[in-house]
Amino acid sequence: MPELENVLRAALTQEDTGWNMGSFGAIAEFHHVYGDTAPTAFDGLQQVTPRGGVRIDRLEGVTPVAYETLSPKPHRWTQAVSLCLPEAEAAMHQREVLTELGPDANALREEDRGAVLFDMGLGQYQVDFCIRTADAALLDVLRAQEGKSLFDHGNPAMGAILKAHPHRVALTRLGRVEVYQMIGGPDTDGKSPEGPHTHVLPKLLRAGRTHSANTPIPEGLVPCCGVHPENPVIGRLGEDKPFVREAFDLFQDLLKAWGPEAYVTGKDRAWKALSDGMAASDVVEPESRVGRAGWRNAIRQWRVLHGDSALLSDWAATFDRDPDQVDPENPGH
């Protein structure tokens, strides 16, 4: 069984590992950018660059859940580890109006600790989604609208935020992610900047969910931090890349230790049957949605590991169809 703290400490110095904190519809992401200075070792579980940062303050009571999900593209899959807490322990303040919280004394960088935090009032269960600023003009607007919803018709605060591009800070019971780059919108041609960025998607927020339906989080747990180790077939910008066997093997170890039993069993069954040369007509896919996801990803990964064949094409045509995904692969991207 891998030791969680050691896995996280190593991941914090790996350029291809991404991090996020948030909910379904409000998320802050930390990624390294190709060409930037390589990550350095910090005291504690943190990483900071000129574009953003992440810090994990608590591991007590954390349950890691490793999982792979189906991609809409049949030659790919996604992978992650969610650091989860019991539902009651994961709860944050769930404020629904703009609220001043005072100077951010716990900011990752000393130079940001005098700037003022405001909870945006998104009302999300496991994250206080905040902005942080020392801009006098923006502070005047925010303070004038404190106690009101950012989504009220005619509220000038949201427009001022989009114009000023304050830092965004996602706070959970496990720590924080900070983003220093511009907010994706009119000033960025509608695109999120490469590297650390945030998404606030009102349509998804209205669903009131803590996480995507694609994520197999056990009942009673809430994901509070997402860790995305290097994907063996997808690059940091979402591009296809040549298969990286080492990244694949490393994640399989995490999946065996922390993955959903139904998923791991479904994948192992499919690989055993493929190894034995069994035709698709002679096997039965798992009944559960999670098990079927493991079965289908087994087909995709077998092709990468062993190449195509008539047998595998038969399996893919029979089983790898009509995706079970309820949500897009990357909502907001």
Summarize this structure as a short list of keywords or feature phrases.
single chain; 333 residues; alpha+beta; 7-stranded antiparallel β-sheet; 6-stranded antiparallel β-sheet; 23% strand
How would you describe what is shown here?
The chain has helices at 4-11, 87-90, 136-144, 157-164, 202-205, 245-258, 261-275, 289-306, 310-319, and strands spanning 18-23, 26-30, 45-49, 52-56, 63-70, 77-86, 99-103, 116-119, 128-133, 167-172, 175-179, 197-200, 221-228. The protein has 333 residues and is of the alpha+beta class. The chain folds into two domains: 1-259, no CATH class; 260-333, no CATH class. Strands 3-4-11-10-9-8-7 form a seven-stranded antiparallel beta sheet. Strands 5-6-13-1-2-12 form a six-stranded antiparallel beta sheet. Strand 3 and strand 4 form a beta hairpin. The longest helix has 18 residues, at 289-306. The chain is elongated.
Total strand segments = 13
What's the tally of helices?
9
User: Kindly state the mean pLDDT as a whole number?
Assistant: 94
The total domain count is 2
Q: What is the gyration radius calculated from CA atoms?
A: 21 Å
Topology (SSEs and partners):
Blueprint: H1 4-11, E1 18-23, E2 26-30, E3 45-49, E4 52-56, E5 63-70, E6 77-86, H2 87-90, E7 99-103, E8 116-119, E9 128-133, H3 136-144, H4 157-164, E10 167-172, E11 175-179, E12 197-200, H5 202-205, E13 221-228, H6 245-258, H7 261-275, H8 289-306, H9 310-319
Antiparallel strand pairs: 1-2, 1-13, 2-12, 3-4, 4-11, 5-6, 6-13, 7-8, 8-9, 9-10, 10-11
Helix pairs in contact: 7-8, 8-9
